[in-house]
Amino acid sequence: MGRIHLRNLLARPADIRVVGVCDPRPDQIAAIGLPAEVAVFPDSRELLGHPEIGLVVVASPASLHSSDVVSALEAGKLVYCEKPLVTSMEDHRRITALETHHGRAMVWVGFMRRFDPAFQALKADLDSGAIGPISHGILSHRNPSVPESFTDADYMLETFIHEFDALRWLLDVEIETITVGGKRRTNSGLMDPQFVTLTTNGGQRVMIDGHITNGYGYDIRCELVGERGSRSLVDYAEETGISAAPHATWATRFSGAYRTAIDACIDDVLAQRHTGVTSREAERALAVALSGIEAQRTGRTVSVGVG
Ligand SMILES: NC(=O)c1ccc[n+]([C@@H]2O[C@H](COP(=O)([O-])OP(=O)(O)OC[C@H]3O[C@@H](n4cnc5c(N)ncnc54)[C@H](O)[C@@H]3O)[C@@H](O)[C@H]2O)c1
């Protein structure tokens, strides 16, 4: 993911400069093919001490986001952080406390679906009232494979968290409860597929099916049903109607959205404003994911905390 952000930042017009990158694995740095003017920092402390750096893009593994973001904020830097911003409420509070201390929202969170043209068109249709008030929805998150180390908790924090944020944004609601069921794979401890049911404070019921070891490709869908019709977002090949997965991975499906999201963040930084996804917005999606982990473990319907 970090490489995609770097490529997009280097493609900006000359209104910013990419000062340097930091990755503890030299092979990862070597694979980037860095332009000569971009420095390599052996550790993040040196990078954060650089006076020319105003914004830090965090695309390390999710378990490291908390310490990376906290260090950046303590150094007075602005941050664009990949989802999930953090993986616990305690870590989340450390970030918002630092933002409060600095007196401003300093973190942009990479929920890039909000910047995807297909999701934006869907939102525009919902906002226009064309299909009337939404009664329910059916969403899918399908992915060819995940590492063997991927856990049920990762399913919530890394995968479904996209749907939680997108739904809140699309419907302008809060998610109130979550229930999770599924089928455990025989060759690993992971439950896959998983079926999530959400209820919202708008009175809607939404089902999400996740299947992240489907073998055939990356396939994101969303159908929202209103009182006067329904609106779908599907990427399948129209001539056959078969979901032969036009995208092998997330990297091609959302390539435009990654670029637009980080461009919007840079535009915000240059204009000294924040129009993107704040840490406080990310906290709501995190609360749903953490409740989802409890729902996976207990098999019960779990109420999402109000934060
Ligand atoms: N928005 C999306 O659609 C999307 C897609 C993929 C990944 N992501 C997110 O991006 C983040 C990274 O995921 P990935 O798939 O690129 O993981 P990855 O494991 O492929 O890459 C992580 C990189 O971070 C490096 N790293 C480890 N510790 C570091 C540190 N302390 N400082 C700097 N770099 C460090 C690793 O060496 C590796 O090169 C995760 O939060 C993930 O959820 C988001």
UniProtKB/TrEMBL annotation:
<feature type="domain" description="Gfo/Idh/MocA-like oxidoreductase N-terminal">
    <location>
        <begin position="2"/>
        <end position="111"/>
    </location>
</feature>
<dbReference type="InterPro" id="IPR055170">
    <property type="entry name" value="GFO_IDH_MocA-like_dom"/>
</dbReference>
<feature type="domain" description="GFO/IDH/MocA-like oxidoreductase">
    <location>
        <begin position="119"/>
        <end position="230"/>
    </location>
</feature>
<dbReference type="Pfam" id="PF22725">
    <property type="entry name" value="GFO_IDH_MocA_C3"/>
</dbReference>
<dbReference type="Pfam" id="PF01408">
    <property type="entry name" value="GFO_IDH_MocA"/>
</dbReference>
<dbReference type="InterPro" id="IPR036291">
    <property type="entry name" value="NAD(P)-bd_dom_sf"/>
</dbReference>
<dbReference type="GO" id="GO:0000166">
    <property type="term" value="F:nucleotide binding"/>
</dbReference>
<dbReference type="InterPro" id="IPR000683">
    <property type="entry name" value="Gfo/Idh/MocA-like_OxRdtase_N"/>
</dbReference>
<protein>
    <submittedName>
        <fullName>Unannotated protein</fullName>
    </submittedName>
</protein>
<dbReference type="InterPro" id="IPR050424">
    <property type="entry name" value="Gfo-Idh-MocA_inositol_DH"/>
</dbReference>
